Amino acid sequence: MENTKESALAVRGKIMKTVELKRGWHNVSESGDESVSLPFVSPCYGRVSLETVPEAGGAKAFLFIDGAEGVVDVFADGECVGTAAGAARLYDLGRVTANRTRVSVVFEDGGAINRGAYLHLSPSEIYIPPYGLFVRTERADESGAQLSVSVSVAGECEAKRKLSAEISVLNAYGRRSCRRKKNFTFAGGEKTVAVEVPLRRAHICETDKPYFYTLAVRLLSGEEVLDEAETRFGVRVQGASRIRGLTGATTPHENGVLGGISLPEAERRKLSALRDIGCNAVRYVGCPSEAALAAADELGLSVVVDIFDNWTYPREGSLSHLAFAEECEERARLAVRLLRNHPCVAMYSVANGCEETYGRRGAELARRIVAAVREEDGSRPVACTFRKLEPTERELLSAGASRAALRGADPIALGDELSVPSKATSEMASLVDICICASGFEPPEETPYLRADTRTEDAFASLSRAEDDEYMLGDFSESGMDRSSHGVTIAGDVDHTCLPRAGGRYRAMLTGAGGSFILVGGADGAPVEGSPCWKADTGETVRVTVFTPGDVVALYLNGYLVGRRLAGRVNKQYAVFDVEYAPGTLEAVSYLRGRECCRTSLTTPEAPSRISLLTGTKKISASAGEVSYIDVWVIDAAGGLSVDYDGDVEIELDGDGEIVALGNEYGSGADDNVVTAVAGHALVVVKGKAPGKLVVKPRARGLRGGRLTITVTE
Question: Domain containing 425 — which CATH number?
Fold first, then answer.
């Protein structure tokens, strides 16, 4: 390893490559011209425009827009360069001239950009396309690593030219670890240049100790620098070996009270909450943001990505089916290029239970998509998510049903009886390496598979099956965070403030990541419902459920034995008691094979006394648009959490900043500075507009208010 300290910028030269288009946008609508900074989540009706791109010029330019909602038309200097329908898109802008280029985005029926926009520039007609670098780890051990670097080169030239790709690998401190140079001939179009790069004394990117290198590439013609690019990567051998034993959640792109906006702090908070309750993996439908992928890398989580939610059939709330057949390979290639250098990405799934998985106009599309994915990255398995769909009449007849049997029959039940799901999906299943099973779909025999949407009431059975079934690679809960699906709220493993829900705590206990806990007031058939608050009317009979890794539970109220119950595997690791309420302390002592293994308790809360503010981010950057999450806790007279407190808290913010979001476990609030604390907790998100101090001061009737100071830097 060389000892010379060298930054990525020094290796790459001084050529500007990427401009993040964050500030200077204007929402021009009937109500006037309003300044907007990206990302923004409020629906905009009309033209959202960026008038100039300062100091941005090049022979070739691309605009990348991520997280666009609705149908979006993109214009450069008044000319439409493309239309997006919700998916991440890369637009070819042609030549960009410094200080004169106008970029505008038009939403047909209202929309937003939840993530961001980036202008990729090249100074030459021959260039490295955006996301055109790929680092694959062929081998990694104590002696070092063998890397395979792919560099995409594109452009036009009148005659063949002799070019070279100069490759440098920089360690986490910016020091160059190795350098290689590859000469090649380029005749126009697009070409991939492969270079083998040995890395001595390599730091492996482990899940519990992530380490990242930077790959910097210069495209040269003799001594002239034509273009340059860089990407971050981790040294890790991908493949099926790191997939077994996944326990996680299907995770929405939304971030609780913050809504659809993706910011680094929001993604870290959400994924950290999931990791803390035992998740080692998350599954996304649609490509996650760069901020989410970076957070998963740093937290050591594995990521499963369903690249497409739907194909050519429309799906409610989505317009991505438009022109899908013509663009599917291009979209798949872009998605893989966005994902492939992130060590967290474990596999690519090409469909989320699409109608085409049943063979409905899908066989040829499937072959094209799978081939495109494998061509861009052959190191990771390719999967597909299957779910039970309502069979068509033709599918039922082909499976052997008579027309008489169709009359008045439940198509799904009849399809199950005739094995329609397995028969109709057999061709699609044969094209992929792993089946992801949702909605009760059963995989083909001797096929590796994952469970995609396990409900809380089925968690015990599914996780137990994963222990016994050698082909079951992992289990994912129905939702990692509270979300809305087709107007129905689905309770996640964590709530809108990122605190664990009872269902998430139950799964954590089953996987060994969490301990015992108590819920009060549950109903028959819904064991994971209830409150962690020991409070009721004196003498009232209350349902108490104790969740425990033990096999026997003894329940005590104020030191007196209420009763003993079996828990253990026979009762899905919980025991139910009916208790006559009296104020005081309810304590559950659990035993495993006759010995105490854990205990947990609830105490009747005293009167609420004061408000406490806590945050893990006391310093934020105004120019980077960073935010600080502040937890608002209502504390009782004994110093414990006032879990029975439900009341309004007014938030006063002093300084040059703004309250970005307010909310509680049920979601964001409508008021600008008043939030309802539910079960003694609420959440405030603030950001600064200029360097200085932000002072957050809560007020509520009858409570002593605290204060918290946030430092805002440039």
Answer: 3.20.20.80
* Residue 487 sits in the same domain as residue 465: yes
The token pair that represents 252 in the structure block: 């929405």
> Crossing angle for the helix pair 264-276 and 290-299, nearest 10 degrees?
40
By residue range, what is the domain housing residue 683?
608-713
Calpha distance 28→35 (Å, rounded) = 9
- Phi, psi for residue 707 in degrees, rounded to 5: -155, 150
Contacts of 546 (CB under 8 A, 6+ apart): 516, 517, 518, 553, 555, 565, 567, 574, 575, 576, 577, 588, 590, 600
CA distance 280 to 282: 7
Between the alpha carbon of residue 188 and those of residues 131, 163, 191, 233, 372, the distances in Å are 19, 12, 8, 28, 21
How far from the centroid of its chain's Cα atoms is residue 236's Cα? Answer: 21
Q: Number of folded domains in the chain?
A: 5
- Are residues 448 and 346 both part of a single domain? yes
Q: Do residue 277 and residue 365 come from a single domain?
A: yes
- Would you tell me how many other CB atoms lie within 10 Å of the CB of residue 165? 21
Q: Are strands 246-250 and 472-477 parallel, antiparallel or unpaired?
A: parallel
CATH number at residue 663: 2.60.40.10
Cβ of 7: how many Cβ atoms within 10 Å? 14
Q: Look at the pTM and tell me if it is higher than 0.85.
A: yes
31 and 81, same structural domain?
A: yes
**543 inside domain:** yes
b/e map 20-34, b = 16+ CB within 10 Å: ebbeebbbbeeeeee
Contacts of 430 (CB under 8 A, 6+ apart): none
Q: CA-CA distance, 596 to 357, in Å (whole number)?
A: 51
CATH number at residue 46: 2.60.120.260
- 321 with 396, same domain: the answer is yes
324-339 vs 363-376: helix axis angle to the nearest 10? 30
With CA atoms as reference, report the closest residue to 615 among 503, 710, 506, 505.
Answer: 710
Q: For the segment 518-573, what is each residue's pLDDT rounded down to a tens digit? A: 999 988 777 899 999 999 999 999 999 999 999 999 999 999 999 999 999 999 99
**Of residues 426 and 486, more confidently modeled:** 426
- Spatial neighbors of 158 by CB under 8 A, at least 6 apart, are none
Does one domain contain both 624 and 588?
Answer: no
pLDDT single digits (tens) 303-339: 999 999 889 888 766 667 778 888 899 999 999 999 9
First to last CA, the chain: 36
608-614 sheet: strands from edge to edge: 608-614, 628-636, 681-688, 657-664, 667-668
7 inside domain: no
